[in-house]
C-alpha cells in the first residue's frame, strides 16, 4: 500500500496492527483519507487479520464511526477478521451508546487481540 | 439569560459559514473557555461531542453546505452549566422520524448516530417545532440522561 497519511500499519506475521495518527478523528477530509487507507488494507493488500489500536485516539465523531462501520462491512465481505483494542473509557462509551459495542469485536489490549486472531 | 448572571458566566453568539472545515476553531475556543472555568475529563468530552455533532449536522443536513447560509450559535458557559442553541437556515426536520441507529437490524448502516450521542451526553436536548434549532444543556448538578439506545 502507498505510504499512509492517517494510519501507522505494522505487519506482524499474518496480522496487520493499525494505529491512528490523528488524536482527534473529526476532520471530514481526514476521515475520508483514513477510510480509504483502511479499505485499501483489505481490498488492495488482501489483509485478513486486522487489529485497530485506538491507543492514540482521544476523540472521534459520528462521521468517523460511520467510516468504521463501512470498513467492518467490507471486512466481513472479504472474510477479514477485525478487532478493536485500547479504547479509552470515553470512546468506549460512544460505542456503547450507539450499540456498536455489539457490532465490533473489542478487546482491552493489542496482546488480547493478537492472542485470539 | 439571567439579568444578574453568576460572575463566572460567559455568553457568546457567533454566525458560522456553512463549511465543514470552518467550525473547529470555534469548538476549540469553547473548550478552552470551559477548561478555564474548571470543566475537565469526561464532561469536556461530552460537550465536545455535542458541539461537533450539532454544528456538523446543521452545516451538512440543515444548510446542505450552502455557502449563502449560516449557522447561528448562542452559548452560555459557567463553571456548572453549559447551554447552547444551534440554528441553521434549512427547512428543519422531525427528529422523531429519524430511524433508531441502535436497532440491531440497523447497526451496519453508517450515519445517524449524532442524535443518539448528543441525547446521551447532554442533560437536556430539544428541537424547536420547525426542527432547525437545537437547544442543549449540560449541568454538572444533573446526571446524564443516559443511553438512548436501551
Automatic annotation (TrEMBL), chain A:
Leader sequence residues: none
InterPro entries for this protein: Anti-sigma_ant, STAS_dom, STAS_dom_sf
Alphabetized Pfam families for the sequence: STAS (PF01740)
GO molecular function: anti-sigma factor antagonist activity
Every STAS domain range: 26-117
Protein family (similarity comment): Belongs to the anti-sigma-factor antagonist family.
Protein's name in the database: Anti-sigma factor antagonist
Organism: Lacipirellula limnantheis
From TrEMBL, chain B:
Gene3D superfamilies with a match to the protein in the record: Histidine kinase-like ATPase, C-terminal domain (3.30.565.10)
Superkingdom of the organism of origin: Bacteria
Molecular function, one GO term: protein serine/threonine kinase activity
Pfam families in UniProt: HATPase_c_2
Domain called Histidine kinase/HSP90-like ATPase: residue spans: 17-138
Keywords recorded for this protein, A-Z: Kinase, Serine/threonine-protein kinase, Transferase
InterPro entries in alphabetical order: Anti-sigma-factor_SerPK, HATPase_C_sf, HATPase_dom
EC number(s) recorded for this UniProt protein: 2.7.11.1
PANTHER family: ANTI-SIGMA-F FACTOR RSBW (PTHR35526:SF3), ANTI-SIGMA-F FACTOR RSBW-RELATED (PTHR35526)
Protein name: Serine-protein kinase RsbW
Amino acid at each position: 500500500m502507498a505510504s499512509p497519511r492517517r494510519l501507522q500499519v505494522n505487519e506482524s506475521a499474518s496480522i496487520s496492527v493499525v494505529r491512528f495518527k490523528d488524536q482527534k478523528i473529526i476532520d471530514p477530509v481526514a476521515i475520508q483519507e483514513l477510510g480509504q487507507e483502511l479499505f485499501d488494507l483489505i481490498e488492495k493488500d488482501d489483509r485478513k487479520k486486522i487489529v485497530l489500536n485506538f491507543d492514540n485516539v482521544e476523540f472521534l465523531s459520528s462521521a468517523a464511526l460511520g467510516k468504521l462501520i463501512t470498513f467492518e462491512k467490507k471486512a466481513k465481505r472479504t472474510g477479514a477478521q477485525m478487532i478493536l483494542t485500547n479504547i479509552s473509557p470515553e470512546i468506549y462509551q460512544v460505542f456503547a451508546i450507539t450499540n456498536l459495542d455489539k457490532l465490533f469485536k473489542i478487546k482491552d489490549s493489542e496482546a488480547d487481540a493478537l492472542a485470539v486472531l | 439569560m439571567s439579568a444578574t448572571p453568576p460572575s463566572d458566566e460567559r455568553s457568546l453568539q457567533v454566525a458560522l459559514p456553512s463549511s465543514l472545515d470552518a467550525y473547529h476553531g470555534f469548538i476549540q475556543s469553547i473548550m478552552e473557555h470551559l477548561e478555564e472555568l474548571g470543566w475537565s475529563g469526561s464532561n469536556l468530552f461530552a460537550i465536545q461531542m455535542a458541539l461537533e455533532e450539532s454544528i456538523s449536522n446543521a452545516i451538512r443536513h440543515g444548510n446542505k453546505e450552502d455557502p449563502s447560509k449560516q449557522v447561528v450559535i448562542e452559548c452560555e458557559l459557567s463553571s456548572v452549566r453549559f447551554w447552547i442553541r444551534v440554528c441553521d437556515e434549512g427547512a428543519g426536520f422531525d427528529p422523531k422520524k429519524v430511524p433508531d441507529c441502535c436497532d440491531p437490524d440497523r447497526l451496519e448502516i453508517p450515519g445517524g448516530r449524532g442524535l443518539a450521542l448528543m441525547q446521551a451526553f447532554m442533560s437536556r436536548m430539544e428541537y424547536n417545532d420547525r426542527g432547525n434549532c437545537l437547544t442543549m444543556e449540560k449541568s454538572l448538578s444533573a446526571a446524564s440522561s443516559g443511553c438512548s439506545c436501551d
